[in-house]
Amino acid sequence: STSVLVSVLTLSAIAVERWWAICYPLRFKSTLPRARKIILLIWIVAFLTALPEAIVAKTEEYIFPGNYTSPFLTRCA
């Protein structure tokens, strides 16, 4: 979930930045510190948004007929 959110938020940030640069070319200044802050903000928002799912989700081992279990075959519950 976090990686999907990071991808979506990154594309959204790029779109907003391009829109701002096109609509306000004289006021727009793209700087490295601003980019770093936006990247950090994107990761924090994505992590916090995906956190409830990580807390609630649990995994179960898949039980085959004959009581055979394998730790390699798990499912989310």
UniProtKB/TrEMBL annotation:
Q: Extract one GO molecular function annotation from the record.
A: G protein-coupled receptor activity
Q: Name one Pfam family in it.
A: 7tm_1
* A Gene Ontology cellular-component term: plasma membrane
Q: Where is the G-protein coupled receptors family 1 profile domain?
A: 1-77
Tell me which UniProt keywords the record has, alphabetically: G-protein coupled receptor, Membrane, Receptor, Transducer, Transmembrane, Transmembrane helix
Q: Where are the transmembrane segments?
A: 6-26, 38-57
Q: Give the bilayer topology.
A: Multi-pass membrane protein
Spell out the subcellular localization from the entry.
Answer: Membrane
Q: Identify the Gene3D superfamilies for this entry.
A: Rhodopsin 7-helix transmembrane proteins (1.20.1070.10)
Where does it mainly reside? membrane
Q: What is this protein called?
A: Orexin receptor-like protein
Could you tell me which species this protein originates from?
Plakobranchus ocellatus
